[in-house]
Amino acid sequence: MAYLKFLKKIVFVLLTFFTFFLSFNSSAFSQIATNQITLLEWQNNALLINTTQKISYAESKLKDPDRLIVDLLNCSIENSDLNKRFKSDSDESISILRLSPTQVRIIFLGSASINRKSYLTNNERTLAIKIARIDNENERITENEKQTALEKYEPGNLKGIEIENDDDKTEIIISATRSIKYNTYLLKNPERFAIDLLNILPPENTLPTYMSTPLISGIRVGRAASGLDATRIVIDLTKENLDCDVDSSLIGNKLKIKIKVNKEKEESSRRAGIRVVIDPGHGGYDTGASYGGYEEKAINLIMAEKLKKLLEESGITVFLTRDDDDFLSLAERVEITNSIKPNVFISVHANALATSRKIRGVETYYWTSQSQKLAYYVHKSILSNIGLPDHFIRKARFYVIRHTSSPAVLAELGFMSNYDDRQLLTNKNTQDEYAKALSEAILKFLEIEPEEGSKKQETENKKQEAKKDKND
Looking at the structure, do residues 143 and 160 belong to the same domain, yes or no? Predict the structure, then answer.
C-alpha cells in the first residue's frame, strides 16, 4: 500500500513537470486571453471556478493512474493567490496550473477522478467540477464500467469538410464522429479564421485541396499546437471585413461556419481609404484680401477646419496643407498634395475687387477635364445652401489646380470687398453652412451619401445631450 502511494506521488510530480514543459512551447496562434479567473473555491467536495467571461474548456479522463484533466481555453489566472492546491474527501490531489498565458490546466489525481464531471452554470461563467457518481461500499464501479466511462470521453475523428458558395457568402460544413467542442480565432496579416476542434483527432492522411471562393482562398487542416490532441482548421480569407460565425445547432456531429461580407465595415473601410486635401489659401505674411478688420487667411483656415470635421464625420481621411498661420508657397502646397495622392483637392479662398464694392457672389475654378464635375457640384451646392449670386464656373490656370494630379478646384466663396458677402464669410453660423455645402458637394462627387455623416453626428449630439441632462 505504501508502495502504491509512493508511486502516485512520483507520477504526480512527473505530470506537473510535463505540464510546465508544455507551457514553454506556445503556439504561433496564441492569443492574449481576455477571460480571467476571479475565484477558485472548494465546496462540498467540488471545485468551483468563476471567470469574467464565458468559459470554453476541454475535458479528458486518463488511466494509469486515474486522473481528470480540465483545460480552460483562452483563459488566464493572473492572481497568484489563486494558484492553490486542494485535497478532496476522496483522497484526490487537485492542482491548478498556468499552462500558458492563454490556458489554465486543472488536474484531479486519484481513483475518484473517474467519477467527476464538469458543469457550466451562471451564464457559462462558472464551472463546477464535482462527483457525478459516488463509489462506495454499496455501489462498486467495475473495471469494465470505468473503461466505458473513459470511452465516453475519448476524442472523435474528423469525417469531412464541405464548401457551399453563394453570391455574397461562403458556408463551410465540418463533420466529425462525435459532437464537437471548439474554440475560434480571427487572425490578421494575412486575414484568416482558425477553429480548434478540441475533442477531435487530427487526420492521419492528407486531406484533399479545397476549392476557393470569392471569400476564401483555401483551407488547411492539421494538429492544434496547444498541447492538446486536437485538430486545427485554418481558413484563408480573401479580404478584410468578413464576418465568420459558427453555427453548432445542426443535427448530428456537425458545425457550419458562415462567412459573409460585413457591408457596414466594408463601407467604413472604403471611406477611410478615400483622401481629401483641403488647402486654406494664403497664410503667414500673405494675408490675402483684408477688409473691415478681417483677413482672408484666417477665414480660409476656419472654413477648411469646419469642412475637415464634417468630412471626417463621414469617415473620410482628410489632410490640410496648413493648420496654422504659416506661409506656404504654391509649389509647396502642390508638393504636399501630390505626395498624398488624394481623391479630391479643394483650395478655399475669399474673393476681392478693389475697384468696386458692389460686386458679390461665388466663383469656382477648375483646369483639367477630370475636375469639371467636381467644380459643378461645389458651385451648385454653395449657390443652393448660401444663396449667393452666381459668378459662374470658370476654367483658369491657377497654379495649385493646374499642377495637382487629382481632381482639383479653387472655390472663391464670396467677395471680402462687398459688405454683404463679408458678413456671410465672417459669421459663425454661415461658416457652418459653407462647410456643409462644400462637404455635400465633395461627398456627391465621391458617390457617398452625405446623410451617413449627419446621422453619426446627430447620434453623437444626442449622446452629449443625454450626458448633459444626467449631469444636471
Answer: no
